[in-house]
Amino acid sequence: MSVQEKLWSSAALGAFDSVCDVFRLMVHEFIETGERLPNDENRIRDRLLEYILSNGRRLGAIEGFIINAEAQDPNVSGSSRGYPDLKLQPVHEKFNDQLRYYFSIECKRIDGTPALNGLYVDQGILRYCDGTYSSPTGLNGMLAFVVASCSEEDVRGGVNGRLILRARGHEQVQRNTVLIDRWDWDSLHSKSAGGTVRLSHRLATCAAVVV
Predict the structure, then answer these.
(1) pTM for this one?
(2) DSSP string spanning 142-156?
(3) How many structural domains comprise the chain?
């Protein structure tokens, strides 16, 4: 890995961690204020983006990046073009190639059921593998909203089981960190067009405020 690639990886993952941290702060605030989130992936994502844009400066979050929802993937054209849930675009001159340096994040709900575990793989992870979403730097993110009480071990096992069914059993997600309200995983996957993509997974609980 080159020095530039290391700098990008550090900056992108730092910004992704900030997004997750702001989500956790938002959930804690909603527990205090009584605000509730609908059990809907897009509406949770939209509320998170609204919260970041309204409070990011106060929280000192995601400095050096512009965040957007469902921005077009600039490296995919035609009917296969995807719209990742969140896109982090750096503003630093070190990363001024906008077709290369951006970090896309696919959001999914998780509740411990086989149905959502399957969607996490089929409509999440695999979109980075089949070319729906591009990955010019080989690094992207998955953000899961954990909308019900469930076990990290059971969810990880369910996701890995789905990967096995998709003939990707050698590409298991690996546990990195497990906290009370956040789980971090990593995985490496082959792409249909050749090469690999590394996915950094952040799974953050919001079950206490979801209705």
Answers:
(1) 0.92
(2) EEEEE-S---HHHHH
(3) 1
